[in-house]
Automatic annotation (TrEMBL):
The keyword Glycosyltransferase does not apply. Residues 38-100 form a coiled coil. Keywords: Bacterial flagellum biogenesis, Cell projection, Cilium, Coiled coil, Flagellum. This is Flagellar protein FlgN.
Length: 136
């Protein structure tokens, strides 16, 4: 049984590495402001996410719903533990890369919105309401 889980871990790790490569490619597109390439990469991310989810479902079936940490500790298989650690580290790297990409996109959107506000300011005139507050 642990052999099948090892195979699942190896395949899941490959899928996670694909996802990491795609996120790094996305990072490059964000930095170089290649907007149209960013649209195309969304589909790639979704496809690899489905692949990772399929491996996750297979792993859950193979462990019969047991907690993964308990399963690995009870199994006492060093290779299985190493694969688990590698996947955990890879997941942390993926989370960091995703957060970085999101932050860069938000910063660029904020900058773009400020530029648009400077170029095209509001045309209406602010007035005071009956409470003395500015009405916009």
């Amino acid at each position: 049984m642990s052999e099948s889980i090892k195979e699942i871990f190896v395949e899941e790790k490959k899928s996670l590495m694909k996802l990491m490569n795609i996120l790094e490619k996305q990072h490059g597109y964000i930095i170089n402001k290649e907007i149209f390439n960013l649209e195309g990469i969304v589909e790639e991310i979704q496809e690899v996410n489905k692949e990772v989810a399929q491996w996750e479902v297979k792993r859950r079936r193979a462990t019969s719903g047991l907690d993964l940490v308990d399963y690995i500790n009870n199994n006492k298989d060093e290779e299985l533990e190493n694969l688990y650690r590698e996947i955990r580290m890879l997941l942390e790297e993926l989370r960091l890369q995703k957060d970085t990409n999101e932050l860069l996109i938000k910063q660029q959107l904020s900058f773009t919105n400020r530029l648009l506000t400077l170029i095209n300011p509001r045309r209406d005139i602010d007035t005071y309401n009956s409470y003395g507050k500015i009405k916009r």
